[in-house]
Design a protein that fits this description.
Elements (H helix, E strand, L loop, with lengths): L2 H15 L5 H4 L10 E6 L7 E4 L5 E4 L3 E4 L5 H13 L8 E7 L4 E6 L5 E4 L4 E2 H7 L7 E9 L9 E6 H6 L8 E2 L4 E6 L2 E6 L5 E4 L7 H7 L13 E6 L2 E5 L13 E4 L5
Helix pairs in contact: 1-4
């Protein structure tokens, strides 16, 4: 079981144990919209139980009070609005509960370093990890960042970009990074920068830059360290600058490496 799957299992177990698998029960901030099917109950008034779909005008019909505008309101706000309307001459201190029976069609796109990029449906409250699981999890070349581009809520607001630290989320279990995904979100998982180590090291190969500030010494350590024949004072870097290769000679071990660097450890003459 990989780390992402492990976190999803934990999330599902928590929902089951709390008796709130449904989105409305666990996420009252869900925004109601056209097409949602609502179950509305009024405590001690079983005859007012209503299952109704939000119409094209963003409204529903509810007994006693008639038409109610609910589009754009959270589940909690819908319940509060109906309570206020019922209290105006119909029921004393009404207590209303609103649950989502059926969700309208919502979708988000995930691209980049995932195994099955594409467009996915969101069934109610959905987090980044859940969408990532649907997309087959991260590829081996995934970087340590994912970006969520979110459409502007209104014409006078800007598009929003949310950054997810994948290292904190997947490796350290920091669930604060598991952001909710909403309709229209576009997710992009970055590709990790790679570098190459060749010559007199024990494991010459390509490697991912796993953290910012990786030095030549760190890169050589990842490659197993120097061999007995290595000339440790003559390490070179072949680096692309503006599309052209440049050779940096006798680089110090504390020099920072860049994506696509080729670190060359020559053989000692002695």
């Amino acid at each position: 079981m990989n780390k992402i799957t492990f976190f999803l299992v934990i999330i599902i177990c928590v929902c089951i144990c709390s008796g709130s698998v449904g989105y409305a029960a666990s996420s009252p901030d869900y925004i109601v919209g056209d097409g949602d099917l609502l179950r509305i109950t009024v405590y001690d008034n079983a005859d007012l139980l209503t299952i109704v779909r939000v119409g094209g005008e963003g409204t529903i019909l509810f007994p006693l009070i008639g038409q109610v505008k609910v589009d754009g309101l959270s589940v909690t706000s819908v319940a509060s609005k109906i309570e206020v309307m019922l209290a105006q001459g119909y029921i004393v201190s009404p207590h209303v509960s609103v649950f989502i029976e059926e969700y309208r069609s919502q979708r988000a796109t995930i691209m980049g370093q995932v195994n099955k990029p594409g467009l996915y449906e969101l069934k109610g409250y959905t987090t980044f990890l859940e969408v990532l699981s649907k997309a087959g999890d991260l590829t081996k070349d995934a970087g340590d960042k994912a970006f969520i581009k979110r459409k502007a809520e209104s014409a006078d607001k800007m598009e929003k970009t949310i950054v997810i630290d994948l290292k904190r989320l997947v490796e350290r279990g920091d669930t604060s990074q598991d952001q909710p995904i909403i309709d229209g979100d576009s997710i992009y998982v970055t590709k990790a920068g790679t570098f190459y180590v060749t010559g007199e090291v024990r494991k010459p190969d390509s490697y991912k830059i796993i953290e910012e500030g990786t030095t030549v010494l760190k890169a050589i350590t990842m490659a197993g360290g120097f061999t007995d024949k290595a000339s440790t004072g003559r390490v070179k870097i072949i680096r692309k600058v503006n599309g052209k290769e440049e050779l940096l000679e006798r680089v110090k071990l504390d020099v920072l490496i860049l994506p696509d660097d080729v670190i060359v450890v020559p053989e000692s003459f002695f």
